[in-house]
Amino acid sequence: MGTARWALIVFSVGALVVAAALALWQIRAALLLAFASVVFAVVLLAIAHPIEKFTSLSRRWSVPISGLVLLTFIGLFSVLIGTQLYNQFGELRQKLPAALEQVEERLGVKAEQLLPNEGGSTNAASRPSGLRNGIPDVMGAVRSVTDKIMSAGSLLLNGLVSLALVIVGGMFLAFDPTTYRRGIVLLVPKDRQSQADSALRECGRVLQLWLRAQLISMGLVGLLSGVGAWAIGLPAPLAVGFFAGLTEFIPIIGPWIGAVPALLIALSVSWEMAVWTAVLFLAVQQLESFIITPLVQQQVANIPPFVVLFGILALGLLFGPVGVLVAGPLGLIAYFLVTELYVKDTLNNTPKSDSSE
């Protein structure tokens, strides 16, 4: 009887664990948006704290003011260089197809041949043509365009709704972070609540340091890339630098993504320009890896690159592009919590920063 009861308990616990895992899987998108709201709240609080310090305003006023400061900065940026940036991105949009065609001609490969068709083949000749026996498949073309428009509209709507949820959720968190932190702490056993509260406070501090360092890195990489593109005569240097700075937010693979449009544009000019562009981005990448990042992130946890790379891959497969965007801060928090609460506390072991091997 005792064995049967023990088996029933084990089965019940296992069923509850599986049910909880399935429930978390179903709400994984909401959990990711909730974490994005936390990151946005950290940004608001990073602006609100100096306002509170120098003006003696309460949190009730400093958070909305910090939001206005953020919107004002975005507005000023748009007014000062937004028009020029828009024109240069338009230039990029016009030049990229021609650049791709020139690359295809020089390599002797068509882009369509690299994309699998419905049967899994990569031969462009095996694709069904829009013109069969001289009769254009108008309905098929219309259906294809309609599907693309509907897909783009749905994607845009989902993106806007997600952005609104992140902003509103971040505002709520920034207004009263203590209440939400206490709510999480209450879920922990009493003898560990003090440690949990301290860990959550440290998570906020680490996130602020990481965001500050990331913004500095993005600004410097964008500046160096833009100035370098202008110096070598690459078209649309402002757009090239801006895109390179934005993609710097994605760890490890971001700088390589940022170099793709610049290299395509350079190939449309000449092979020499492509070589100079590759040298430019390699130089900027080396400066970012060995000088900029170590200097600006010396107070932030140093996550092993292997963990970051496969963390980006896992989050990208689970959550798509949004998962890739939040892979940096989410990986940082996960690494920090594992190190502080498990490695140092439970195992009573302090990880070494340098290996003797």
General description of the model:
The protein is mainly α and 357 residues long. The chain has one domain (28-107, 150-346). The chain contains twelve helices and two strands, in the order αααββααααααααα. It has helices at residues 2-26, 28-55, 59-107, 138-175, 177-185, 190-231, 237-247, 254-269, 271-296, 305-319, 321-325, 327-346, and strands spanning 131-132, 135-136. A hairpin with a 2-residue loop joins strand 1 and strand 2. The longest helix is centred in the N-terminal third of the chain and has 49 residues, at 59-107. It is globular, with a radius of gyration of 25 Å. Mean pLDDT is 77; it is low at 124-136.
Shape: globular
N-to-C order of helices and strands = HHHEEHHHHHHHHH
Helix content: over 70%
Main sheet makeup? 2 strands, antiparallel
Q: What is the number of beta strands?
A: 2
Gyration radius from CA atoms, angstroms? 25 Å
- Secondary-structure-based class equals mainly alpha
Number of helices: 12
Beta fraction of the residues?
under 5%
Q: Which strand order does the major sheet show?
A: 1-2
Provide the low-confidence segments as ranges.
124-136
Number of domains: 1
Mean of residue pLDDT values: 77
Give the end-to-end Cα distance, rounded to a whole number of Å. 55 Å
Describe the secondary-structure layout.
Blueprint: H1 2-26, H2 28-55, H3 59-107, E1 131-132, E2 135-136, H4 138-175, H5 177-185, H6 190-231, H7 237-247, H8 254-269, H9 271-296, H10 305-319, H11 321-325, H12 327-346
Antiparallel strand pairs: 1-2
Helix pairs in contact: 2-3, 2-4, 2-6, 3-7, 3-8, 6-7, 6-9, 6-12, 7-8, 8-9
Pfam family, one: AI-2E_transport
Subcellular location: Membrane
Family: Belongs to the autoinducer-2 exporter (AI-2E) (TC 2.A.86) family.
